[in-house]
Amino acid sequence: MLLLGMPVAICLGASSLLVIILQGMPSQIAVQRFFAGVDVLPLMAIPFFILAGNLMDSGGLAKRLVSLANVFVGRVSGGLGIVTIMGCVFFAAISGSGVATAAAMGAIMIPSMVKRGYDRGFASAVVASASPIGVVIPPSISFIIYAVLTSSSVTDLYQAGIPAGMIMGLCLVVVVLTISKKQGYKGDDHPFSWSEALHAFKDASWALGTPVILIGGVFGGIFTPTESAVVAVVYALLIGLFAYRELKWTDLYRVFLDSAKMTSKIMLIISMALCFAYLLTYNQVPQAVMEMFLSFSENKYVVLMIINLLLLVAGTFMETSAILLITVPILLPVLQKFNIDLVHFGIIISANTAIGLMTPPFGVCLFTTSSIGQTSIQELSRRVIPFIGALIVAMAIITYIPQSVMFMVDLW
């Protein structure tokens, strides 16, 4: 069904229903499992984070974060490329979505980079490769789905996600610096001014307050991740309407409608996928997969390498939430057998799905950036290859040096 191009939710739901019928199980099981899949409290955070991201995008927060980053790093060679990566990291800590980050940052940064003499393909590639960091930097919708599937702590995932996102961002910065020096992309000639920096910081202070409130509130135990999503919506409304005044009352209908459409798509996939996961468990597929892995090797690091390769392949043709919902229930016994920390693996699989967002033929960040940057998919796919290599290096660091991301969990 996937190869025929059917929607992922229909593929999961129809194949689940077919198995139920063929195995002579009561058809009511399908309805029960579909409903039970979304009748989970932590999933309430998803529609609120999506709404908060859309409100903040319309409220002018993204361009202020870019201006702040440009004051500090815009003068170095490839400075606007680095600003783009920093802007994506900042906005990811607000929206929790790679696609929302690609749309917001692409519209602002690609025209700016082209105006400064950057090649359009390179400018689009920087946005396409940096925007997927949104699934790794908290608050992340992927973390919420993974926590529901594995009964892991969302707070621990948030803590480990911050250094993981920084590692991925730094690897991308190295590529930008290397290519920019080779191509002669110069930085801004405007001299640094403390008064300008102070003004930019003051202008972006409301936008910077968002990740501080969200992440700090969760880490400090003031509210749960689900409650933080509601706080984010209220904060985004107040800032967009009354502080920056770029969000108009007439915009709210469009923002709420777009958020509802995106939420319904994700929740439908979750509903169908958890029924699919139930049938996998019922038919002992995870146990069979574990035996297959054991036949390859009993070395934990070799198994992790095989899992990473499988996830990278899956990312080329499957959507992020679908990868999580299909693979995590199958791999859970393998993780338990090899004593792999579930929080650490949550970061690993999220990093894999981030790479999937920028690889054809299913890379939604690639498609979004291609449309905004007016670059062909073929050209953009070629230009992101060095960035994919950098993110694979970052993923290897995250996988094989666990303390590079887990130290935050241990410290807190």
Automatic annotation (TrEMBL):
The chain crosses the membrane at residues 6-22, 34-56, 76-109, 121-148, 160-179, 200-223, 229-245, 266-282, 302-335, 342-364, 384-402. Residues 1-403 form the TRAP C4-dicarboxylate transport system permease DctM subunit domain. InterPro entries: DctM (IPR010656), TRAP_DctM (IPR004681). Its main location: membrane. Signal peptide: none annotated. It is a multi-pass membrane protein. Keywords: Cell inner membrane, Cell membrane, Membrane, Transmembrane, Transmembrane helix. The keyword Cell inner membrane applies. Pfam families: DctM (PF06808). It is found in: Cell inner membrane. This is C4-dicarboxylate ABC transporter permease. The lineage of its organism: Bacteria, Pseudomonadati, Thermodesulfobacteriota, Desulfovibrionia, Desulfovibrionales.
